[in-house]
């Protein structure tokens, strides 16, 4: 199979838009989609601090490498990587090492936030205590919180996430199926700044997971290929399979799910707009209920629960 743009052999087909791409044209196309999304999601951003959530996996590694390319020539922009160590034996140490190597090779400053120190517990420990709860439900919640806090403490104006097209399409479908409109409209990318929350952007939103993977390989990025030992219990797996099946039957389904999300957010902004989040009584972070979800999980695990401020 030849590339649709040149005589080189193709390494990937793109059924959702027709055609095949060689390594060089895939890399150019990923960069173009990233650049366009960054421009759309962070319009007119020329000075300030941009934090990139970096796990050391392929998606966040590509997000950081491209952020460095996007912002690297602007002396007025400070780029910073934030990595979270949730405390997962046999997995996180290797991804953090890959993240450290990438930061060093790109010359990007890195901050590592440890759940054990910040929250007094780890994903492994809570997984043992809450044996009936899929670990991703609390791990994802407090990773988001720790990333937001670290980005806010660093004075970041935006937090770049490595979510690819598949991730976002799955999340849209999950929230629709759960009837969780609040969470659906709060998904990244954020259109408005909310108190205490660093706006999150997702510049890989138009790049399918497979293309992100091929890009990372083609660029020789030092990402980690390992899989979290808790991942098999993730609810997302079912949605991954459904979205993939729909995409195979009808190429373009993932983009359509993202468009659905965008249109819902536009309507919501034109009517209610986001309510101002309150503060968690346990930790002071933004929360829509008395306790944020991170504190809720910690309270479920321990009978005394998080200390609640008066
Ligand atoms: S797969 Fe689940 S438990 Fe593992 S790091 Fe991701 S969110 Fe955490
Ligand atoms: Zn080509
Ligand atoms: Zn809290």
Q: Could you walk me through the main structural features you see in this protein, from its secondary elements to its overall organization?
A:
The strands form 3 sheets. The protein has a 5-stranded parallel beta sheet, with helices on both faces. Strands 1-2 form a two-stranded antiparallel ribbon. The protein has a two-stranded antiparallel ribbon with strand order 8-9. The chain starts with 11 loop residues before the first strand and ends in a 9-residue tail after the last helix. The model is unreliable at 304-310 (pLDDT under 50). It has a single domain (45-276), classed as Rossmann fold (3-Layer(aba) Sandwich). Helices cover 48% and strands 11% of the residues. It has helices at residues 23-41, 58-71, 92-106, 115-119, 123-129, 135-153, 165-177, 181-186, 209-219, 236-249, 253-270, 293-301; strands at 12-13, 20-21, 48-53, 77-85, 109-114, 158-160, 200-201, 278-279, 286-287. The protein has 310 residues and is an alpha/beta fold. The protein is built from 12 helices and 9 strands. Iron/sulfur cluster is lined by residues 86, 88, 123, 135-136, 139-140, 228, 230-231, 234. One zinc ion binds next to helix 12.
């Amino acid at each position: 199979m030849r590339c649709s743009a040149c005589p080189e052999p193709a390494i990937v087909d793109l059924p959702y838009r027709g055609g095949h791409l060689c390594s060089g044209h895939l890399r150019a196309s990923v960069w173009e989609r990233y650049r366009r999304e960054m421009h759309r999601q962070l319009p007119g951003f020329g000075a300030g601090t941009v934090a990139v959530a970096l796990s050391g996996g392929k998606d966040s590694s590509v997000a950081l490498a491209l952020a460095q390319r996007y912002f690297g020539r602007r002396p007025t922009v400070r780029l910073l990587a934030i990595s979270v160590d949730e405390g997962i034996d046999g997995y996180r140490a290797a991804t953090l090492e890959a993240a450290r190597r990438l930061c060093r090779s790109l010359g990007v400053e890195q901050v590592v936030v440890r759940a054990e120190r910040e929250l007094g517990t780890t994903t492994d420990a809570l997984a043992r205590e809450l044996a009936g709860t899929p670990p991703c439900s609390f791990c994802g919640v407090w990773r988001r919180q720790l990333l937001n806090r670290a980005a806010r403490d660093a004075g970041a104006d935006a937090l770049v996430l490595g979510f690819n097209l598949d991730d976002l399409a799955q999340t849209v479908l999950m929230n629709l199926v759960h009837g969780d409109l609040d969470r659906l409209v709060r998904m990244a990318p954020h259109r408005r700044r909310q108190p205490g929350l660093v706006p999150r952007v997702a510049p890989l939103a138009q790049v399918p997971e497979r293309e992100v993977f091929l890009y990372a390989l083609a660029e020789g990025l030092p990402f980690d290929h390992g899989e979290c030992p808790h991942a098999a219990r993730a609810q997302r797996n079912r949605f991954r399979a459904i979205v993939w099946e729909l995409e195979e039957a009808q190429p373009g389904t993932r983009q359509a799910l993202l468009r659905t999300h965008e249109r819902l957010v536009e309507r919501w902004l034109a009517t209610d707009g986001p309510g101002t989040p309150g503060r968690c009584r346990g930790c002071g972070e933004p929360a829509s209920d008395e306790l944020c979800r991170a504190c809720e999980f910690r309270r479920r695990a321990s009978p005394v629960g998080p200390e609640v401020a008066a």
